[in-house]
Amino acid sequence: MKRMFCATVAAVAFISLAAAQGAPLGEGTFVGRVDLRVGIARLAEIAAADDRASLAEYSGDTAVLLFGTLSRPAVSSEEPFEAVVEFLEGEWIGTSKILLHRVYLVFRGDDYREFLKGSSGRRTVVLARDATMRVSPDGARDVYLNAISLRPIF
């Protein structure tokens, strides 16, 4: 009886946590290739090396699936809605130093307006495409991607 009760409580807790993540935002479908070999660190490395030939591999109908932390959005247009968000991934160096890698995500459309208001610090999975290299506000070369869809991970 005790085991059955614990198993039921654990199942309810798991289902509640899974449901709390919410539905994905953005486009519900994507037709094209998703490249799972690249992450934020690799894209940041491509930008630092100014390797436009490697970056071209992630343009067109190829999308990338990225996992990271969103920063505060910078809204560039209210109508139609457009915002740019720094997307970060940390890498431990030894036991006391963290190296941050970043790309910028461009969100277009009203689907993202409410979500981005409280998005700073949220861990998120993002499907993005059309990688381009631009100079960011701090003067560094960075990769910018158009967000297709996202799902927050709490």
Structure explained in plain terms:
- β7 (123-135) and β8 (141-153) form a beta hairpin.
- Mean pLDDT is 83; it is low at 9-20.
- The protein is globular, with a radius of gyration of 18 Å.
- The protein has helices at 2-20, 40-48, 52-55, 113-117, and strands spanning 25-26, 33-35, 62-70, 74-77, 82-93, 97-108, 123-135, 141-153.
- The chain is built from 4 helices and 8 strands.
- Helix content is 24%, strand content 44%.
- It has a single domain, classed as OB fold (Dihydrolipoamide Acetyltransferase, E2P) (Beta Barrel).
- The two termini are 32 Å apart.
- The chain is of the alpha+beta class and 154 residues long.
- A 5-stranded mixed beta barrel has the order 3-5-6-8-7.
Short description:
With 154 residues, this protein is an alpha+beta fold. The protein contains 4 helices and 8 strands.
List keywords for this structure.
154 residues, 44% strand, OB fold (Dihydrolipoamide Acetyltransferase, E2P), alpha+beta, 4 helices, five-stranded mixed beta barrel, 8 strands
Instruction: Give a count of the beta strands, DSSP E runs of length 2 or more.
Output: 8
Q: Tally the helices.
A: 4
Residues in helix, %: 10-25%
C-alpha Rg (nearest Å): 18 Å
CATH class: Mainly Beta
Q: Which class best fits the helix and strand makeup?
A: alpha+beta
Which architecture per CATH?
Beta Barrel
Order of helices and strands: HEEHHEEEEHEE
Main sheet specs: 5 strands, mixed, barrel
Distance between the termini: 32 Å
